[in-house]
Amino acid sequence: MAEFDLAVIGAGSAGLSVTYAAARLGRKVVLIERDRMGGDCLNVGCVPSKALLSAAHAARSARGAARYGVRVAEPEIDWAGVRAHVRRAIDTIAPVDSAERYSGLGATVLRAEARFVEPGTLMAEGRRLTARRIVVAAGSRAAVPPIPGLAALPFLTNDTLFDLAERPDHLLILGGGAIGLEMAQAHAALGCRVTVVEQGRIAAQEDAELADGLRDVLQAEGVALLENTRVTAAEPGPVLVLEDGRRIAGSHLLVATGRRANLEDLGLDAAGIRATAQGIATDRGLCSLTQRHVFAAGDIADPDGIGPRRLTHVAGYHAGIIIRRALFRLPARLDYAALPRVTYTDPELAQVGLTEAEAAGTGRPHRVLRFPMAENDRAIAEGRTEGLVKLVVTPGGKLLGAGILAPHAGEMIGLWTQAIGRGVPLSAVAGMILPYPTRAEAGKRVAGAFYSERLFGPWSRRLAGLLGALP
């Protein structure tokens, strides 16, 4: 008989969630983590990056206070203080993800590297562990592009960026995705020169119109954006050599060009577990295609026909599916139709469902509705009118996608995630009663715009005239 009901490799978001559920249900579970409890999100990802962004936001607010009639001096950036704030955020959350907490729940926690030695059997801490079911949630790491000379440089990734003892003078960033743009804005606000080099356009996954608005903001704040620019070599300095011959020199280099699944040290071949370059190949229930007792979750999962989605909330979503399937034997399958994503710049860029370009690519008839934040009373009152709410809908009013560029767009996108996921009709959103004044009203207004043509069209005018003539 197997020693454990469940073995979990990786103590990030997905692994911790599955372990918590199994332990609380009285299952015999072992959690194996070779590095830090909490995974990338707690230690080198979501938490430290958002803490750094909050410090940057404070500096930006101070610089912009004069427009509200509040006079303050140029903020002085205490880099050691900023780092302490980031560390406090991590330390405050860490006990929730700690080995002690999960041991207290009844799980066996091993701080070691786990490796398959045969199907259903792992080696960790020099001992063989057998489990009826195994969840691989080993995560991912920063992908390093094959640029000549880059590997020889002391470049930064999200693993090392938050350990900098001194503020960068000129931060070069390879990659204009969410991580690159967030860190670009944060470091610019904290007094660094910043240059972003992107081989395509920035925020390439996001709606182009919303990305245009974000580009304007970043450039106004002093971030240099080099788009559609290919780097042909990297040299000590660091110096990036561009395809057109230009040489861009900086004090530090951050590589933010995507993620790569941590597959190499797991011994997957010994267990007969099929993997792709993107991760462990699974069905849409996150079960291995070749070993049905093995599940994959989070950044390391490559669901069949869908591909990985390397976001922390996706890891939590994966955990829920595996809990239902592995612990309760219930059917559960991935559905990313209502999967939101947010770039946490200021303003934030949030998206769920199809973008305008993606909707056009389907060939299905659709309409695009827009409401600029410049017409939202709360935005006007706060002097933050940049951005817009944008909806993609069918001619009949079914919501296909929503995008928002606005302060706190990540908080606003939840409504549209629910609307797409639960099939809430656009009329229900248009008919909501929302508190005034809020930015959320922009969403209600754009939904209402779909019906305004009918409401105020010729037929409605005639009907109103006839009804008005009645005694």
TrEMBL record:
Belongs to the class-I pyridine nucleotide-disulfide oxidoreductase family. It comes from Teichococcus vastitatis. Gene3D superfamilies: 3.30.390.30, FAD/NAD(P)-binding domain. Residues 340-444 form the Pyridine nucleotide-disulphide oxidoreductase dimerisation domain. It holds the Pfam family Pyr_redox_dim. This is FAD-dependent oxidoreductase. The keyword NADP applies. The keyword Nucleotidyltransferase does not apply. PROSITE patterns: PYRIDINE_REDOX_1. Transmembrane segments: none annotated. Residues 4-315 form the FAD/NAD(P)-binding domain. Its cofactor is FAD. It comes from the Bacteria. Keywords: Disulfide bond, FAD, Flavoprotein, NADP, Oxidoreductase, Redox-active center. InterPro entries: FAD/NAD-bd_sf, FAD/NAD-binding_dom, FAD/NAD-linked_Rdtase_dimer_sf, Pyr_nuc-diS_OxRdtase, Pyr_nucl-diS_OxRdtase_dimer, Pyr_OxRdtase_I_AS.
